[in-house]
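Continuing the series of single-chain predictions for the mutant panel. This is the parent chain; the variants come on the following pages.
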Amino acid sequence: MKRNLIASVAALSAGLISVGALAQGAPPKLDILLKPHATSSGVGDYVDVTIKLEAPKAAAGDTLARLPLMIVSMPGIKLDAKDLKVTDAKGVVAITQADLPATPQWQYRHFNAGRATEGDVTLTYRAHVREVSGTTRMGPLFDFRGQPGGVNGAGMTFLALPDKKTPYSVTLNWDMSAYPLGAKGVHSLGEGQVKQIAPTDLWNFSYYYAGNVQTYEADGFSMYWTKTPPFDTQTVAHKIGTLYGQMTTFFKADGGSYRVFVRENPFSGMGGTALASSFIFGYDAGNPPTLDRLQALLAHEMAHNWLKIGGEHGDSAWYTEGTAEYYSIMLAQRAGLLTPAQVGDMINDRAFSYWSNPLSALSNADAAAAFWKDNSAQTIPYGRGLLYLINTDAKIRAATGGAKTLDTIVQAMIAKQKAGENPGIDVWLTLVGAEIGAQAKTDYDNMVAGKPLTPIAGALGPCFSVVPTTVRRFDLGFDQPSLDKKLISGVRAGSAASAAGLKDGDVVIEATSVFDAQRTQTSPMTLKVKRGEALIDISYLPRGEAVAAHQWQRRTDVADAACKL
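Parent structure:
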């Protein structure tokens, strides 16, 4: 699941600073050395970290580095001040720690200097991997984890770095001496040694992947894994590499590269997380993903590399997620990876998921407030943004006689970003309003308020008819938070869960992720629960009342060649 922190983080690499741009003096150096280790059975268990700061000139009590204790639902490594060795030109620097108040997204631990530092400062510590099992809760894939053949994780979960917005001249190196010959370390921006001038946020929001790494590479696109997955890696990588080429052309990307990292989840559920110029996805070996589903997931996340808008997450998620949904489908079609009929099926699945969402009438602000509390709230920006953008595209085409489309607006937004601007909602409304007039503001306000989104004539072009239908509301049948706690409560009489035999007090051993159960109208909810000494398998369709919706139907009188949007 990509439903994670701040979607704009996926495009951090677009803000990298070139050496030539720093005419007013070189930034301070920051050297990172990572030495991964593995158990005798080859499973990654820790990495020794050495971080050297060039003359930070910290006063007594100043923060030298920080590390999150928690990033939304994902824990950082367990690192106390006593586990951190800090030295400078005068010798050992005593360190104290201070835990900041938690927010809905973060809780940071600061490591503070016990005295003023002199000269360069070196921090060394051991980062142990997170223990995960079949009962671990699914969440963003930031956590630092071991797997057969290596270790991996996002920098924010295991790197203690300064909290500075100013750039550093960073050099990342790997010491792979604890692994067999041929093992390597890979970062979101490159293999082996990586040098880049950028704020520490780039290194926090990058992925680190090391060990006995297998690789697929083609034209700036790479995919990595250490344990052979239960799907055809070459086929998946070739398709996503083809789509990457289509995306770089459409978004007028200037070279660069993109990396996809693969790991296995020991628990039920598949999902992923976008980071700087890269993406990590985890799969459930007990329920291997189909190639089509993998393509859709990876295409969506890769689109985040370019699609962003200024503003808080609650205000902007409709755009970041909606455009990623739209272009992951449309650009795949343009690349020859999807037929028009497949496009219609994918749009219908996403639209049905939105219309059947029990929280679909929430405003964007209310959905944002519930974002970390309810999985249904997390999915709202995806379907809402997609349906709003499909209608907006149809209105722009109609108003301009087909001379302009949604592409025109999105590419104008990207051009402003490349020019160093940070265009927000006001710029979006100005661009759309220039094509369709005052209706742009009305449509936007209605979307933000959570009013029903009905496809208009011409939505998805001439190849589809839009017809009324009904869908059934998603209804888990019990209190969703109890699933995370592994102890069922709130089973509602008359629900499909109750009819299937689920009871309050059942202990959850295994369960379908809520995202998977919510994905389509026919996706089942399957649980293995313990009741007393008995293990019981329960499966049901988590659906309730029927509600009004619409469906795109492929017209048979229009050829496929006329269908590309």
